[in-house]
């Protein structure tokens, strides 16, 4: 059987189009015309020898073969970019300071650090896991170069990565029965102030006339997870980093307010970033797409 070499530019167009949710937006992101994007997709289908897309209303959806190719395309592009970065990136030297929310410590940080270190062994990363308020303060005071944070308004150099749904969370091991029409206030597990998510929880409960009390306050996310798992109360968080001992509560079943999504933002301390910071920012975004594909809804 004659082997076919898939066109890397066409694969990249295909992946960007699916991530953007529209090949018109993909054309804008890639700096190409829509006709050029369409030509890339036709070329890719010809090389694959099977249909990859089907019409779905006004848009396009993947065929079964398209879904298979998309998974492989992401891996091929990552390997291509990592190979190029490994060759060219040997010239990168220096250090970069990165801050992350506790939520992303286990889910994203190991992958980011490993990938970056392999591609750029001469660059030193100084990492910090911290609360949102500390991350934004250190970005503003130029003590961090990059930070992955929640809804950080007021920071001039921030890139909105995704909108992540907020969830009410309770113990997976203990029955969570706190009918909100009873006389007793709803027990809440939260982090110490200042905390963006704690403020959102209180605001939504107050708005719906639901009495509440702070049943447990923790300085760390690990403590909050432990108290929630023990059944001391319910918490408000995204489900990123959620342990198996904590489950997502259905607002309709527990008569809790519906919740909005929260912006995930990649913050920079300076508008004109250096090549090291730019490269780390790219790897962070790639890691988020690969590690949390069902969590992130890109905008």
Automatic annotation (TrEMBL):
Q: Which SUPFAM superfamilies match?
A: Periplasmic binding protein-like II, Winged helix' DNA-binding domain
Please state what the protein is called: LysR family transcriptional regulator
Q: Look up the coiled coil feature and give its residue ranges.
A: none
Q: Which domain of life is it from?
A: Bacteria
Instruction: Give every HTH lysR-type domain span.
Output: 6-63
Instruction: Report the sequence similarity comment from the record.
Output: Belongs to the LysR transcriptional regulatory family.
Keywords, in A-Z order: DNA-binding, Transcription, Transcription regulation
Q: Which molecular function GO terms apply here?
A: DNA binding; DNA-binding transcription factor activity
